[in-house]
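Narrative progress, year one. The postdoctoral researcher (J.K.) led the effort to move from monomer predictions toward full complexes, under supervision of the PI. The following entry was the first complex the group processed end to end, covering 699 residues in total.
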Amino acid sequence: MLIAVSSLSALGVVFGLILGLAARRFHVEPSGVAAELEAMMPGSNCGQCGFPGCSAAAAALAMGEAAPDCCPPGGRGLAATLADKLGVALDLDGLAEQVPKVAGVKEEICIGCTKCFKACPTDAVVGAMKQIHVVMREACTGCAKCEPLCPTGAIELAPLPVTPQSWVWPKPVFG
Amino acid sequence: MNAPLLSPFARLNRLVRRWGAHPEGRKHPAADTEVALLPLPPRLVLPLAQHVGAPARPIVSPGQRVQRGELLAVAQGTISAPIHAPTSGVVLGIGDAPTAHPAGLVAPAIILEADGADEPLPLEEAEPFALAPAEIARRVAAAGIVGMGGATFPAAVKLSLGQRRPIDTVILNGGECEPYLSCDDRLMRERADAVVDGARIIRHAMGAAIALIGVESNKPEAIAALRSAAKPFADVRVVPLPSRYPMGSAEQLIGWLTGREVPADGRSADVGVLVHNVGTAAAIQRAVRYGEPLTRRIVTVSGGALRTPRNLEVRIGTPASALIEFCGGIKAPVARYVMGGPMMGVALRSLDVPVVKGTSGILALLPSEVGGAEPGPCIRCASCVGACPIELMPLDMASFIRAGDLDAALRIGLKDCIGCGTCSYVCPSQIPLVQFFNHAKGELAARERERTKQETVRELVEARARRMEREAREKAEAAARRKAERERAKAAAAAAAKAAAVPVEAAPATATSAATAGAEEATA
């Protein structure tokens, strides 16, 4: 019995040593791509891409499980940067049709409950208790976290209105 | 002629380089009739963004009575221009109104109802050549003057930009190379003295040695009028230019007159030159000498479908329909209404669109005057390459853009494209080349805007995370503080109770304090 125990223990120690040394010797640095991608993302963890947050989305992108145009708040600019980083071809024409959305407050029915602005990841909603809230369009990413929280349905997402400043000539189509 | 300034190389360059196109002028009969004053319309629409840069900020409220020349909206930011009342009347409101936009978008505007009295505000006159350059720039800025050739860049910004660099030559652009337009031609013929005076004021403000007025040779009457007005002055010279499109582009004009080339990412001030349109110079003269704000301009009303083409002096804010009506209306079905010239102008969706500071023409074009043939395939004839005034490769840029590779187009010079449309004009396959470039430039600008927004969002998210962390820490610290206080109170109470237990006679007072301490702890 002593022989069995000691020989098995010795085997265990030897193999453990081999495994430990192999882990040291053949160590592979974890890929930094995911971290780099995460640094490019908006970081608001809005979840519009279908992943739990920006870091999960970056990991999926690095694994090739998500498309570079998966991030709506990032828009075409981010899609182009991500595609460039990942070295994949990307057709931005389809994305152009996706109009970015922003939240807006219906002033007649806002009761000033502060629920929406506590949830906003970018502090885009401004207001105070029992005061009408307002959304700063420049800061809103259209993540829709505020929409289900509103007790009166006063906050709603709508397509960003086109102004002469944001309008772009359409691409000529022929042939 | 300005011969000594030009090197032999520049002269050779003039002969060898055959850029541009020769569209039919079609400037007559509009150029033959004197400028008429358009009667005051009942209602004026004054868009807040009539210039490149930030829109003006209104400072009047609905119902307010204003006089002619009164400030309605102030400049906002460094590149902006104020807007003044073109006549006396009542502000009806501030809201969205139609603008000259290719997609027919609306933009905020001040609506002014004219009272017909046309009462002016008193103006502040000055002697321009006694003023300091900075004061001239200030007066020009206060008058809301922008580039009247159509580029609408605030004139005062250009003046003060030039004051930071040595400028040796001021050029007045009297090219007017777009077909149909003759508003600058009429201005130079009828108000040559004002144009020459404006040129001298700008020359004085810039400390430049000379002011050149370049006029295309298809306007001999304008050249003669300017020459006789400039005769007494040694610092102004009138130089005829060949009639070629786009001779009226600042880069081409500088190249032709001085032999200098504006660098790719630079401005004309980088080569010691400042260019202003002749209309802008006349407006600068009125502003500096008489203190008059920019509230009217000369507009060419023309086109094959118009009954009596001519030039009109119009208040800013007058709807296009009033101009067409004054010129006898239309005599044939109109294929397209255009604001500006036919090469670089904007097709109008509605005739309610008002005349703005940069409006040089209103055209009613016949079907035979507008292109419309279906584009064919590129035959690689390189007509566009020869015609491009900037020496770009329009065919390659367009094929890159068509394939969605904007960065490749950028690499071969998309940013330097001036959007003159000469390439589209000369293309035998009718390919809308310049539309591709406009699309790509807009798309790149939109991408840049998205990138900036993303940066902002990232900063906001980080600021929020820091704030949340700080709040949590403060909460924890406050809780720890309260806990410490409680423990101190408890210890004090215990000590007091102990002390009370030993000397029996001192009991009543300390017992009460111990009891209150206990009560405090209970409430805490």
